[in-house]
From TrEMBL:
Protein name as it appears in the record: Germin-like protein
Organism this protein belongs to: Quercus suber (Cork oak)
Signal peptide coordinates: 1-27
A family per Pfam: Cupin_1
Source species, domain of life: Eukaryota
Transmembrane helix recorded as keyword: no
Binding site for Mn(2+): H114, H116, E121, H160
Length: 222
């Protein structure tokens, strides 16, 4: 009886320790094991992340990035521009689990519905009035028009958008808890993939005729 009680106590102790341990899956990126790891984007090997540039080749300039310049917004009918500061453009954030974007919106500009598979997002409106919305996995839509100084948060992986609803230009800065959050733009992913997603799949999913799918695909053809 005593042996059974001791075994139960030991099992309970083990479970308690496991519950108190940090859970790596709660972090978007793994913790770094050194002060910094400036990415070597030209390294010949490919890993889940990027190898470190030798410390002897790291300079002060590696740790600074300019997000002060306004992006060009009139290159498409979406009328918006993103200037990313992720590991691909700002190698110093490699392994740090952070990234930022500057998002410029022309009048009526739209950052179309998309999701970030590897990060949650937070943002602050600097100029203009921006409608921010997202949809949960329960198909519930949340939205609000934000003014300068107001912030928003988008949980990881949820579909969301931002649209300039003010009279002039708008500006926002967004941040992520991943050095490379990724972006799945719904319209481009569904109708502009290469090779193309089969029409029989899309007509059934959207419950429309083949001609409608072909018309939409033609707008996203490269």
């Amino acid at each position: 009886m005593m042996k059974s009680s001791n075994s139960a106590l030991y099992l309970l102790s083990c479970l308690t320790v496991l519950l108190l341990l940090p859970v790596p899956s709660l972090s978007a990126d793994p913790d770094q094991l050194q002060d910094f790891c400036v990415a070597d984007l030209n390294a010949p090997i490919s890993i889940n992340g990027f190898p470190c540039k030798p410390a002897s080749k790291v300079s002060a300039n590696d740790f600074f990035f300019d997000l002060s310049k306004e992006g060009v917004t009139n290159t498409s009918n979406l009328n918006f521009s993103i200037t990313p500061a992720n590991v691909l453009t700002f190698p110093a954030v490699n392994t740090l689990g952070i990234a930022m974007n500057r998002v410029d919106y022309g009048p009526g500009g739209l950052n179309p519905p998309h999701s970030h598979p590897r990060a949650s997002e937070s943002g602050v409106i600097i100029k203009g009035r921006v409608l921010v919305g997202f949809v949960t996995t329960q198909n519930v839509y949340y939205s609000k028009v934000l003014k300068p100084g107001e912030i928003f948060v988008i949980p990881r992986g949820l579909v969301h958008f931002q649209k300039n609803v003010g009279k002039g230009k708008a500006l926002a800065y967004t941040s992520f808890n991943s050095h490379l959050p990724g972006a799945v733009i719904l319209a481009t992913t569904i109708f502009g993939s290469q090779p193309s997603m089969p029409n029989e799949v899309l007509t059934q999913a959207f419950q429309v005729d083949d001609s409608v799918i072909n018309t939409i695909k033609s707008k996203f053809s490269s």
